[in-house]
Design brief:
The protein is an alpha/beta fold and 372 residues long. The strands form two sheets. Strands 1-7-6-5-4-2-3 form a seven-stranded mixed sheet, sandwiched between helices. A two-stranded antiparallel ribbon has the order 8-9. The protein is built from twelve helices and nine strands. α4 links the parallel β2 and β3. The longest helix has 18 residues. It is globular and about 75 Å long. It folds into two domains: 240 residues, Type I PLP-dependent aspartate aminotransferase-like (Major domain) (Aspartate Aminotransferase, domain 2), CATH 3.40.640; 114 residues, Alpha-Beta Complex (Aspartate Aminotransferase, domain 1). α1 packs antiparallel against α8, α2 runs parallel beside α8 and α3 crosses α7. Helices cover 35% and strands 11% of the residues.
């Protein structure tokens, strides 16, 4: 069975973890700092705070800028539930908005339609690896005093229209490095800040509000002494996870080329198909995360692919379909609901072979539904 997702790991990642094990310093330490520095170098020198998951990255970013009870935070209904959960756990109210039918991302228009008097932040999502128009969103948000926390869990390694990497501009950007993302740390995430003071606060909040770390105090005269300045969390990335991430960063271009090849092959295979379509995608500047197929015959297509030894999935249900969020004061979600009704995701893997690519392409091309 060709899976819908899988991490690509090898001996170099294993050796990096082994080195951390030998050091006996498994938690937050120098390897995590090295990972943060490498990310910063890739993202125009912006300061980076590495976290234990992408979900806590979003929560921590929102808490860092003071989002909490009484605040509204707009996010698209077309996203994984983690985005809305990260908002809700701060005490803020997630407000769901629709997406643009061309990009499948939020736009200034869909965000503005959902804006309330209590809107203090928005969390746009780079769905399937296609970056949102972050410059336009930040320009719209600033006059309203709205902060922008970009959920770029899908788009690490993608580029904006002018060639700048996602995360190198904007207000705050959050990444995920879980097992199936464009690179993995096993589990992990990161926040990229445009403001040094906010970065410093996030670093404190991720370690229980402590004003230093055990690693940073090693050379101090009184290494046991520190201050606690505010309530915080245990959201830091440990050394062994960062060790995996550092090796994965070395393979980023390899992963990008493979996924771009696979997505182009699928798009070519379905060009002119009677029953299946793929949404347009700026493949040349993306590190694709999802390969999306749209069809009115989803159940039949999933069964057809399964018969050919190919996994598939639905990423995602609209958030307003869940009990936790269905009573939110949602506006028009017609585009989201139509995409959610017809979407299917097929394998797009960091190490997908040409044989696997061709098997999926052939199975998609051969699909014909049974119609009444």
């Amino acid at each position: 069975m060709i899976p819908i997702a899988r991490p690509s790991l090898g001996q170099n990642e294993l050796a990096a973890v082994s080195s951390v094990f030998e050091s006996r310093w498994l938690g937050l330490g120098k390897v995590t700092e090295d990972f943060e520095k490498r990310l910063s170098e890739m993202l125009a020198g912006r300061p980076v705070c590495a976290t234990n998951t992408g979900t806590t990255a979003i929560e921590l970013a929102l808490r860092t800028i003071g989002i909490g009870a009484g605040d509204d935070v707009i996010t698209p209904a077309m996203t994984f539930v983690a985005t809305a959960q990260a908002i809700a756990v701060t005490g803020a109210r997630p407000v769901l908005c629709d997406i643009d039918p061309g990009t499948l991302n939020v736009s200034v228009a869909t965000l503005d339609q959902a804006r309330t008097p209590n809107t203090r932040a928005v969390v746009p999502v780079d769905y399937r690896g296609v970056p949102t128009d972050i410059d336009a969103i930040c320009a719209w948000a600033a006059p309203h005093g709205i902060r922008v926390v970009q959920d770029s869990a899908h788009s690490f390694g993608s580029f904006l229209e002018d060639g700048a990497p996602v995360g190198s501009r904007g207000d705050i950007t959050c990444f995920s490095f879980d097992p199936i993302k464009n690179i993995t740390c096993g589990e992990g995430g990161a926040i990229v800040f445009g403001d040094e003071e906010e970065h410093a606060r996030a670093n404190r909040l991720r370690v229980l509000g402590i004003n230093s770390t055990a690693w940073s105090r090693l050379e101090a005269k009184r290494p046991w002494e520190y201050d606690v300045t505010e309530l915080g969390f245990r959201y830091h990335m440990p050394n062994f996870a960062a060790a995996i991430g550092l090796i994965q960063l070395e393979r980023l271009e390899e992963f990008r080329e493979t996924k771009q090849r696979v997505l182009r092959a699928y798009m070519a295979a379905l060009d002119g198909h009677q029953w299946l379509t793929m949404p347009a995608s700026p493949v040349d500047r993306c590190l694709p995360f999802l390969a999306l197929v749209l069809t009115d015959h989803r159940d039949q297509l999933m069964a057809h692919l399964r018969e050919h030894g190919i996994g598939s999935g639905v990423q995602y249900q609209s958030l307003d379909s869940f009990s936790l969020f269905k009573n939110e004061d949602c506006g028009d979600l017609s585009v989201t609901n139509e995409i959610a009704r017809t979407l299917l995701t097929v394998p797009i893997l960091n190490d997908q072979t040409i044989d696997e690519q061709d098997r999926v392409s052939a199975a998609l091309r051969a699909f014909e539904p049974v119609t009444q």
